[in-house]
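Pilot study result, target chain (557 residues):
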Amino acid sequence: DINISTSPFQVILRTLLTRFLGRCNAKQMISFVQIFTMIYFLLVVFASHCGHVESSFPAECNYTVNTDYGCTVGSTVHVASKGDCCTKCLNTSWCLVGVYQADSSKCFLKGGILNAKSKSGVEACRARNPTPPAPPFDCAEAGSNCAQRLGATHWNPCYFRNASLPVLLDGAQSVAGMGSRVIKVALFEPATMYPFNSPLWPAGGFADLVSMAAHEYYSSLFAMESLDTFVLIAYSTVGGTSGGNISYWTSGITPAQAAEETRQFYECALYVLRKFGSRGKTFVFENWEGDWASRAGSYDPTHTASNISLHSMRVWLAARQAGVTKARSQYERELAAQRTQMSGVQHPSLQGRVFFAAEVNLVQESRVNGVRNMINEVIPYVRLDMVSYSSYDTESDIDNFKAALEYLLTSHNRTEAAPPGASAYFIAEYGKAQNHVPNATVAATVENVVNQALAFGVSYVLFWEMYDNECTGGVGCAANRCHDPDHPVTVRVSFLFMCHESSTGVPCLIRHAYCTLPSLQNPSHLNGFWLVRPDGSLAWPYVYLRDKIAQGTAPVV
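Predicted structure:
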C-alpha cells in the first residue's frame, strides 16, 4: 500500500528538493516543478489503485481460511477482493463477518447469531464482535411474576398428546404443565384450528363471537385453575361464519360493519368477564400479525399495504377496541353495584380484567427506513389498551429487538385503561424452526428474547408454539397446515404377512395380508416450532422456560 504522505516519502522528497533547487536557475526550476507535479500525480493515482490489491486489508478485519458461518441475518454482494469484502462488512452496521469466496467473487455478509463451520474455498473476516447477550433475568426476584408472563401459543396444532381430551384442552394442559399461567389461543374457525378429538364443534359453525367463547371447549379452557391469562386471537363473524374472511376490511369497511365489530366484541368481552371474572381471570383480545393481514394475502414485506387498507385498519381496530372498552365499563359498573348491595357483607376480592391489543409484525424497516407499516401508519392513530409484537424481524439481533421495543413505546396511543409503562406491550410470537436451525441459534434467540423482554417490563412473552403447526408433508398435511380431524401428521407403518403350506398339508386361507399399525407421529414432516414434540419429548425451549418459571415459584428456604 503506497502512501506518499508517509514519513519515508517525505524525507526523500525533501532531500531531493533541497539539493536540486539550490543549484538551478528560474527556467530549470519551472521545468522541475512541472515534472515533479506529474510524478506526484502519478504516485497519488498509483497509491489509490494499490488500495485494492490483496496486500492491503482494513486493519479491523482478521481472516480465517476455510471457515464459514451460519447466521440469522445476511445478504450477498459481488466484490473484487477479500479486502473489499471486509470493507463492505465494516460499512454494514449489522454485519459481524464477511465471508469471501474467490471463485465467485462473492462476499457473504453475515450477522445476528453466528455458528462457525468448516468450508473449503472461502475466507472469513470478522469485522466486529457480536453484541453481548441480554443479561439473565432473575425470575426469583420479588415481583418478577414469570409464571404469569412466560407462556406459549397453542393454535392449529399438527398433533396431540392426550387423545382423551379435545386438542384445545390437551395443549392447554401442556402449557400449564410447564408452570406457565398464560396461554394464547385462537378464537375463530375453531373446528379448523382445533380439529383433533373434538366432535362437539357444531357442523354449521358459529353465528357470532360470543357463541364461540361460550362453547363448552372454550368454557372448560377458561375455567382451568392452572391458567390465569388468555390471549385470544379473536375475529367477529362480520367476514363470515366463525370468522370467515378475517381480512375483509382491507378493501374498505362500512359504518355498519364497524358497528357490528363493536357489538360482537362488547358481548363477548362482557360474557367472559361475567362468567370468569370472579376467578380473577384476564382476557386480552387481539388480531394476528396485522402487517401481513393489511397486505391482503401477501407475505412480502416490500409489498406495502394500500392506503385504503391502512385507513380501514384504523377504523377496524378502533371498533374492536370500542367494544372491549364498553364491556369493561359495564362490568365495572356491575361490580360497583354489587359492592353497594353487599355493604358490610364479605364478597369475593378477585376481579376479572379485559384488554384489547393490536399485533404488529414488521417494525424494523419502519423504525430504520420509515417504511409504511402498521406501527407507524396505524398504531399512533388509534387509542389502544395494548400493543403486541410478533418479533421475527428482530429476534435474531438483540440490539434491533430492544430498539423495536422502544419504538413500540413511542408509537403507542394509550387508552386510559392501558397498563402502565412497558406492561402495555407483549411479545406475541418468537421462536425458530428447530428442525432446520442449529440448537445454538435456538438457544441464543430464546434467551435473548426472554431476558430482554422481561427486563424491559412487557406483560407477556409467548413462545411459538406448544405443538408445531407447520407441516411439510405426510398424511393430513395440506398447504403446510393441519386441518384434517382424522389425520394428524403421521407416517403409517405396514407389514406384509405371508402364509406357506404347512408340512401337514393344511391349506392357507389367506396367503398374503397387510397389517397397518396405528399411526406414528413423524417429526420430520414438521418444521419444528414446538415445545413438546409429537413423541412427547421436551424440546430445549420447554426445559429452559420451565426452569425459568420455576425460579420464581420455588419455596423460600
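One observation from the pilot: The chain has 15 helices and 19 strands. A full batch analysis is planned for the follow-on phase.
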